[in-house]
Amino acid sequence: MKPILPRLALAFCLSAQLAANTQASAQSWPSRSISLLTTFAGGGSGDIVARTFAEFASKELGQPVIVENRPGGGGVVAAAAVAKAAPDGYTLSIQAVGPMSLRPLFEPPVGYDPVADFTPIGLLAETPNVIASSAKFPPRTIAEMVDWAKKNPKGLTMGHPGPGTIGHLGLLLLASKTGFSGAYISYRSSGPMIPDLLSGEIDIACAAYNPLFLSEGRVLAVMTPDPVEFLPGVPSMREAGFPGIYASTWYGIVGPANLPPEVVTKVNAVMNAFLRRDDTKKRFTAVGVQPRGGTPEQFAQKMADDKLVWSKVVKDANIKMTE
């Protein structure tokens, strides 16, 4: 029988060597190109956010940051790929609220755990949802709309971009907090919903802000605590007298679980430097996006808060993805 002590010593040395190699690798990161997976199709506001960040990060990190669009499954395809990637910093992702906070509430077996399988790096940006109406719809404020809906039970038609989207949940939250009812009209996305809203086929809609809402329709309120700079004259929900009814689509940077702290710190610093630039703010504002920023811990708390709020909405409304 071989002595136990030498074998323990060998195991300890190998473990120490592995830890040293991992630390050295993290400190020299990056030494090659980085894949930045996104849940978005090309051309949308989320894709513009990703590519603008990748362009800046490539210069700051000294290595190409390559955006890979992997839409599909409501964001699940890209999220699952990141969850399975090696935690070496060479596969990162810009994720949205849908796959990280919402889809797991409807479909627990999505193939990943949004807490255990990812490393939060930072909250990059948010696109506020708005309550928009047709120009033909008589109410001109949220308070008038709620009053109208109560006087016309089930008469209000409300469009959203699909079951379980933040637009759908925003309407459910608004209705439950104010006590009105109506008919929920589900669309495959905001694209086909907007013409129906503007033509008066539906009364109101809840979705991420689109300039058409103001140019051809009406925006009753933005679903944020405070006013939005690029929507002058549009009240926030708090200003309109409905505090606590907030909904937005956020974009955050994540990596696989167990990402080296040095990588997290470096990417977070690059993100915050990117968000402080005037050019970033201008480019984001042009597509209706608000820069955010902050620490990995603040981003993790944001995700936890979203889960708490929306899980109650989902449970109370008994939402199923098959709806």
Task: Report what the structure shows.
- This protein is an alpha/beta fold and 323 residues long.
- It is 45% helix and 19% strand.
- Strands 1, 2, 3, 4, 5, 6, 7, 8, 9 and 10 form a ten-stranded mixed sheet that branches.
- Strand 1 (34-38), helix 2 (45-61) and strand 2 form a beta-alpha-beta unit.
- The protein is globular and about 65 Å long.
Write the layout of secondary structure elements.
Layout: H1 4-28, E1 34-38, H2 45-61, E2 65-69, H3 76-83, E3 91-96, H4 97-106, E4 118-133, H5 142-151, E5 157-160, H6 166-178, E6 183-186, H7 190-199, E7 204-208, H8 211-216, E8 218-222, E9 248-256, H9 261-275, H10 278-286, E10 290-291, H11 296-317
Helix pairs in contact: 2-9, 4-11
Q: Kindly, what is the distance between the CA atoms of the first and last residues, rounded to a whole number of angstroms?
A: 65 Å
Parts with pLDDT < 50 across at least 5 consecutive residues? none
Shape field: globular
Q: Assembly state here? A: single chain
Using the CA coordinates, give the radius of gyration: 22 Å
- Name the beta content range: 15-25%
- Summarize the biggest pleated sheet: 10 strands, mixed
Helix content: 40-55%
Count of DSSP E strands? 10
Spell out the helices and strands N to C. Answer: HEHEHEHEHEHEHEHEEHHEH
The secondary-structure class comes to alpha/beta
Tally the helices.
11
Q: What's the average pLDDT?
A: 88
